[in-house]
Amino acid sequence: MTPKKNGPVPPSPNSAWVPVTIRDVAKVAKVSTGTVSNVLNRPDIVAESTRQRVLAAVESTGFIRNTQAHQLRGGRSHTVGVVVLDVANPFFTEMFRGAESRLQTEGYVLMLASTDGSADREANFVRAMEEHRVEGVLITPAAADLGALSGLRMRGVPTVLLDRKATADEFCSVTVDDVRGGELAARHLFESGHRELVFVNGPATVRQCRDRRQGVRKAVRAVSKTKKVEVTEISVGALTVRHGEDVVERILAMSPRPTAVMCANDLLALGVLRGLAARGVRVPADLAVTGYDDLIFGSMLSPALTSVRQPAFELGVAAAELLLDEVRNPDHRHREVRFEPELVVRTSSKP
Predict the structure, then answer these.
(1) Residues 326 and 246 in one domain
(2) Dist. CA 82–CA 268, nearest whole Å
(3) Which end of the chain has fewer CB atoms < 10 Å from its terminal CB, N or C?
(4) Do 182 and 281 belong to one domain?
């Protein structure tokens, strides 16, 4: 005898797939479609025994709710857009993980995009996220001017800046004191006895690069009161391993040759270390090297990389908290959460 089926029969491999509907679920659970809808959207008003029967029917039929239709009816998507400069950079990945860890406990799904520092890509991603009715946006802006984000504010989309301070009371933000971080790294090298320092920096359009440069200059002013020091800045097109490796020839061709290299992030530092190793330059005996961000691979290198630690995961969590408050609290006021950097000294810069 053929066993009786509890729901729609699954299609054969050669037949067209027909989605399970809310009516199919109601039929299997022996309830109305309104009851199924309540279980999916307002489960607290449904009796426990009925709710469990409906959920069992959802499971047995393989029903998948049409979230897009649901959000068009209710106006909420429970989706948050996250836009970062470079998803290949572990710093941004860790920051995303921090935000995700907090938001997923509230039932949110995150939509991630990487701009590669392009304002045009950023605009396209933000537009697509708004079309998907995201409830909020976490973003590391690609451009120095925040005017491109004004549309989000005008349309009432809660927006939090990641690792970027707002220029006025227009957005919430989570930041790290990069001026202090740049100063910590430079002073460490000066105090270790280095007089000629190369600062490998990224594009001037990136706020973090500008702030770290300011920190280096602050360290120079402080140290110059007691001894003569000199810093040469080399700006590269992007904060990547390849750009760090490509700059090594320029560093070694300098006269007099510097004794230390400070990099604006750990990816540049990794590239510099690779370039120096390929040319037989010893670190730190011939040239000291520091990075910035303290990514997880830094302590695993040989020599282990001195770096400025940023609490990337905590930045993401704090940004998520600010966004949730803006979404839920009608009395929300924009504010900045600021973290302090920490210098982590390892073998690559020890005298």
Answers:
(1) no
(2) 24
(3) N
(4) yes
How many domains, the chain?
3
Q: What is the pLDDT of residues 305-327, one digit of tens each?
A: 999 999 999 999 999 999 999 99
Quick one: 90 and 101 in the same domain?
yes
Domain of 224: which CATH number? Answer: 3.40.50.2300
State whether 228 and 300 are in the same domain: yes
Any bridge partners for residue 261, and if so which?
Answer: 198, 289
What is the SS3 string spanning 57-109? Answer: HHHHHCCCCCHHHHHHHHCCCCEEEEEECCCCCHHHHHHHHHHHHHHHHHCCE
Give domain status of residue 70, yes or no: no
Instruction: Check: CB of residue 330 under 8 Å from CB of residue 272.
Output: no
As a whole number of angstroms, the distance between CA 20 and CA 14 comes to 18
Q: Give the structural domain span for 45.
A: 1-65
**pLDDT band at 289, cuts 50/70/90?**
very high
Q: What is the pLDDT of residues 188-237, one digit of tens each?
A: 999 999 999 999 999 988 889 999 999 999 999 999 989 999 999 999 99
Final residue belonging to a domain, choices 13, 37, 65 = 65
**Are 155 and 239 contained in the same domain?**
no
- Longest distance between any two alpha carbons in the chain, whole Å: 96
What's the pLDDT at 217? 97
pTM (2 d.p.): 0.75
Bridge partners (DSSP) of residue 290 are: 262, 306
Tell me whether residue 157 is in a domain: yes
Residues 223 and 54: their CA atoms lie apart, in Å, by 72
Q: How far is Cα 287 from Cα 280, in angstroms, rounded to an integer? A: 11
Q: Are residues 188 and 162 in the same domain?
A: no
Q: What tens digit of pLDDT does each residue of 78-97 get?
A: 899 999 998 988 999 999 99
Confidence of residue 299 (pLDDT cuts 50, 70, 90): very high
